[in-house]
Amino acid sequence: MNIVAINMAGWAENQSALSDVCSFPILQDTEEVDAWSLLGGGKDDFFLYHSDGTLAVFLPSGGKVSTKLSTPQGYANIRDTLMAME
User: Fold this and answer.
1) How far is it, in rounded angstroms, from Cα 30 to Cα 10?
2) b/e map 9-25, b = 16+ CB within 10 Å
3) Helix, coil or strand: residue 75
């Protein structure tokens, strides 16, 4: 399993707040690339892909499934979804 985060464009100075608490790569989005718009996502959305690169699950922030990692339920939701994909 590989995990990568995309930090929001314009928030490069805040990237250390995330990198200090995780061990996975953090890519920095830019206004020119605008990866979040290209993916059709937003802050705290989760895109989970199969190993062949196809989208397996999209969990939008504020959707039916909590994705807020700072809460026990949100963390469990993401963990359980990832584990079910293996």
Assistant:
1) 7
2) beeeeeeeeeeeeeeee
3) helix
Amino acid 31 reads E
Contact 5, 25 (CB under 8 A): yes
- Separation between Cα atoms, residue 69 and residue 18, nearest integer Å: 12
Q: pTM of this prediction?
A: 0.79
pLDDT in tens, 1-35: 788 889 888 878 888 887 888 888 999 999 999 99
Partners of 66 in beta bridges: none
CA separation for the pair 70, 68 (Å, rounded): 5
